[in-house]
Structures are given as C-alpha cells and as structure tokens.
Amino acid sequence: MSKANAALSVTPFCLEAWSKLRLQAVEQALSDWVTDETPCGLDHGAPADLVAAMRYAVLDGGKRLRPLLVFAAFEAMNLPTASVGHAAAVRAACAVELIHAYSLVHDDLPCMDNDVLRRGKPTVHVQFGEASALLAGDALQALAFELLTPMDGSVPPEMQARLCALLSRAAGSAGMAGGQAIDLASVGQPLTERQLRTMHQLKTGALLQCSVLMGAHCADAPLRAVQALRDYGAAIGLAFQVVDDILDVTADSATLGKTAGKDACNDKPTYVSLLGLDASRHHAQELLAQATAALNDGGLAEAQALHALADMVVNRVN
Amino acid sequence: MSKANAALSVTPFCLEAWSKLRLQAVEQALSDWVTDETPCGLDHGAPADLVAAMRYAVLDGGKRLRPLLVFAAFEAMNLPTASVGHAAAVRAACAVELIHAYSLVHDDLPCMDNDVLRRGKPTVHVQFGEASALLAGDALQALAFELLTPMDGSVPPEMQARLCALLSRAAGSAGMAGGQAIDLASVGQPLTERQLRTMHQLKTGALLQCSVLMGAHCADAPLRAVQALRDYGAAIGLAFQVVDDILDVTADSATLGKTAGKDACNDKPTYVSLLGLDASRHHAQELLAQATAALNDGGLAEAQALHALADMVVNRVN
User: Fold this and answer.
1) Spatial distance between the Cα atoms of B33 and B87, rounded to a whole number of angstroms
2) Are B92 and B70 a contacting pair, CB within 8 Å?
3) Average pLDDT over residues A129-134
4) How far A238 CA sits from the closest chain B CA (Å)?
5) Nearest chain A residue to B106, by CA
6) Which uninterrupted H or E stretch holds B159?
C-alpha cells in the first residue's frame, strides 16, 4: 500500500460531511427541474398549481437515501466527477427520488394508507386535495423519465436508455407498484416470512437496488462490481424494511416524522409481528453483514460511502 | 407517375381494413406484455391481482386511436415493415396506449370524475377497488417505459431514448397530466377560448401529437415530415376534443360507451358551452382542413391512413 493510500485509509469517513455536498446538489437540481418554466420547444409549461403540489411533495424533505446510493455507487467506480457519467448520475439521483416521492404521495391517499402526516408536514392530499395529489404523483413519475432523457446531448443515448430500463422495471408491476399491491392485499392476512420478504423486495428493495445499479451504470461499472451492487442493494433493501418495521413499534411519531404504530393499528404483517422484536433486530444486523460481504467480495471494500450508507440504513433511529 | 403508382392511387383506401390488421397486432402485443410472467433476470413477476386490474384497464376496449396514429405516421415514411423501426413502432403503439389507459383509470376515480362506466363496462375502481385502480394506473405508466426500453437489442438505444423522451414529456406536467390539472381547476370557471384550447392541447393533444411523432421517429423521418406531423398532430388533437364536447351533448351513453352529458352536469367549460353547437362543428371541420393541409404541405399527401384517421377523428359518432 502506498503512503497516500495508507493515509487515506486511516482518515475516518464522515458520512454526514460526504452527504452534505451531494444533498445540496440534489436539492438544487430538483428545485431547478420540478418547475413550471416552459420547456424549450413547447408552447406551454406546466400549470402553476400542479407544479406547486409536485414541489411540495419533493422539496425540503426526506433522507434522500436513494440519491445518496446513486452517488455512492457511482463514486465507488472512481470516475472523474466532471465526466459525462456524473451529469447522468445527478439526473439518475433526482429521477429515483421523484419515483420515491410520487409513491409516497399516492401511498398516503385516503384509498391507500390514508395518512395525514409525512416528514412532519401535512400530506399532499391534505394540503392540496386528493385530485391534485393524484395528478402530482402521476406527473412526478413522468418527470422522472424526462430527467433521464435530456435532449441536449448531455447524456449518451445508450446511458439514457439503460437508465430508463432500470428505473421503469424497479418502479412497475414487478417492482415497487407490485410490492404495494401485495402489501394492500395482505392486510389482515397471515404471511410467511418468505411472502413478507417478497413483498418488501418489490415494495422497497427494487428501488433501492435500482439506485445503486443506476449509479454503477453511469460509471460504466464492470460486471463484477454490478453483481456485487445487486447483492448489496438486495440486502440493504430488505434491511431498510425490517428496520422500518422495528421503528414503527419502538419510535414515536415526532422522531419518525410520520404516524408511528400504523402497521399494528392497520393489522399489517410486519417483521416484528412475525419474528418478534429481538429476532428482527438480529435479522437487520445479518443483512448489514451480507451487504458488507457483497462489497468486500466484489472488490468494493474501499467504497466507504456504500459501507456507511448500509450502516446508516440498519442503525438509523428514524 | 408509373403504372403501378397510378393503380395504387385509384385503389380506394379502406380505413377499417387497414386498421384491422394493425389492431390485431396491438391487441396481441398488449396481451403478451401486460402479464404476470416473471421477467428474465428477476426473482418475481408482478402479483396476479395487480396484473388482472391492469389487463382489465387495457385489453378488449377502446378505439386504439393512438396506436393507429403511430402506425400511420410510421408507414407514411415507407420503410419496410420488417425493419428494426417496425419493432419499435409496435412498442411505441402499445406504450402510448398504456399511458392513455392509465390516464382513464385515474381520471375515473372518485376524487376525479367519479365515473362508473367506461367502454360499456364498470370502471376499474368499481371492479377492483380504488386502491387497486390507483396502483394499476401507476404500474401501467411504468410499463409504458419498460416497453420502450427492451434489453434484448431489438430496438437501437438512440431510438429507445428518443421515444422515452417524447412520451414522458407528452404524459407529464407540461402535457397530459398538466392538462388534467387545468381541467380540474377550471370546473365552474369561465374560460376564454384560448384557455380552453391550452387545456385541451395539454390534456389530449400532447399524447395524440406524440403518437405521430413517435411513429415518425421509428422511421427516422426527415425534418420536413416531422414538422408536418407536429402540425397534423396539433390539429387533430384539438379536433378530437372539440368533437368530444359535441358528442357529450348530442350522443347517448349507449353510443358513447360512457356516461353522456357529464360535462354540462359537472359544470365543465366545453367548446359547446363556449361557442355553441354549430360553431363547434364548424371549428372541427376547420381543424380537419388544417390537418389535411399540414400533410399536403409536408410532402405527405399520399399518406392515406393519416388522412383517413383525421377524418375519422372529426366525423366519428362515438
């Protein structure tokens, strides 16, 4: 190991500092792109009240875990930050966050979870009405694919196509939307651990896994790294949901920024109801170990942001 | 003109026969692609009940105007039907229909138009419940972008990227979803003709125009033809809505396959309420003339299917 590398490896990695810069870039880009400015070549921009609901749903809130995963995977490939891939990674980071944001807006609607509080604020339908929330969610999903397909030559078409392919599959009926449908159908139903895992792999895991795969694709990652990130994404995707289930019973609404205790109240099957609290905590730590092993086995042992994000997913308090 | 061409030009064009073959291909492709089969490389397919709602929303119904416009524009460029572009056109035709279908599912929901009848059948939320209808719509939008981004090499990545760019912009906040938001906000409001036109350009026009542009792009159409199709699409997009407004007051529910008289009942601004019935009919014919002129001026005078579809849009009875 060279002296420079030795020095690097003993510098403690600070996830907070690493995240801060990237989150600033994401917040700025989202604010620039979720807008009612008239796009070039069109007669009309989006109506202002629809855009207001979209901005409310997207800006100033959330952990931005998915964008951070895009950047962490992208940077693990050690491309220069001024590359074409970096411009694509910023778009991918924002696009996956738009999909996540739309899913929350629709999930909170009265016909779904009927939730009134999200990130400590009234949910979108409480603030803007149900119909506007529905349309804002629909428009956010479309906007995600707009962001991935800039017509200014800033992202190579092959990369645009692959990013759209990854995101649409992760968001759709064999991904997030499919997981939500299983969730919906399973209220009050006894599920096996295997069924519960399938639901969460689709509902939450698909989009988290997609985040790291999009980041890797923006950096033209080699196959070995892509496979490692696939396994890493699957492990933290499931871990995220196990921890969500734990927090639903152990944290209060103020800490969560959303209504605590909803799952038990709604008679939803969870890891805690299935395995108990202690076994759920143990399972989350096992999944963290799997994520770490995937990185180490795939030649990504030095990818500090990916390691730190996995740790954050499992050991978070909200 | 050669003898062969002269013979062609006197053969009367039969839209019904032309449409029949293309509709069979679209129905088959939609049935194959809206499925719960596990996609290659994934552990799980989509849940069966979600797919059932998606299929109900998409199959066996509708005029399929948008897919027919894709094919008509594609064929106007005279590429061989076995070309790569043709495979892309089939995907584009299905993708735009999925976007249209999802918009109807969401539009029919109680928080929007609260409609119980569509294409002569109970609407999706009546049949499957509101939450399933919401998710089926969401999943259909994602599936549209899946169809445009096959990972099997069957469509060149540049074409995939451009098709996603066109469709996402037509579906989103400065397109269809934006038009629906204006529609929502305008109930009971007096609109000028200009405001009404803007609403319809976004709500209906954007996706119809996108259909012909996607078809043209699949055939690598020259700029002059693209511009002609842009004008043609704008004219028939608006005409479609003018005629919809006319039929809402002149046709009965059985003919329409949906509830007639809804607009007046909901106090929605329409061309008929703004201009009166006669002037609306006259305006529809003007728009047909504009569409025809756009084709003729753009070197597409021989594009019989495009001419016939414009005529059908304006002179339809349901």
Assistant:
1) 14
2) yes
3) 97
4) 14
5) A134
6) helix B157-171
Q: Identify from A149, A186, A189, A198 which residue to disrupt to test chain B contact, counting B C-beta atoms within 10 A and taking the largest count.
A: A149
Quickly count helices (H) and strands (E) in chain B: 17, 2
The label of the residue with tokens 């500090």 reads: A304
A and B: number of Cβ contacts within 8 A: 203
Q: What is the DSSP string of chain A?
A: --HHHHHHHHSPP-HHHHHHHHHHHHHHHHHHHS--SPPTT-S----HHHHHHHHHHHSS-S--HHHHHHHHHHHTTT--TTSHHHHHHHHHHHHHHHHHHHHHHHHTSTTTT---EETTEE-HHHHH-HHHHHHHHHHHHHHHHHHT--SSSSS-HHHHHHHHHHHHHHHSTTTHHHHHHHHHHTTT----HHHHHHHHIIIIIHHHHHHHHHHHHHTT--HHHHHHHHHHHHHHHHHHHHHHHHHHHHS-HHHHTS-TTHHHHTT---HHHHH-HHHHHHHHHHHHHHHHHHHHHTT-TT-HHHHHHHHHHHH---
* Length of chain A counted residue by residue: 318
Q: How confident is the model at residue B6 (pLDDT cuts 50, 70, 90)?
A: very low
Structural domains of chain B, ranges and CATH numbers in brackets: 14-315 (1.10.600.10)
The pLDDT score that the predictor gives to residue A156 is 96
Q: What residue in B sits closest to A234 (Cα-Cα)?
A: B43
More confident residue, A257 or A288: A288
Name residue B310's beta-bridge partners. Answer: none
What's the complex ipTM? Answer: 0.92
Give the residue on B whose Cα is nearest the Cα of A176: B139
What average pLDDT does chain A have?
Answer: 90
**pLDDT tier, A177 (very low <50, low <70, confident <90, very high otherwise):** very high
Enumerate the residues of chain B whose CB falls inside 8 A of the CB of residue A36: 173
Average pLDDT value for residue range A152-178: 96
Q: What is the pLDDT of residue B43?
A: 56
pLDDT at residue B210 greater than cutoff 60: yes
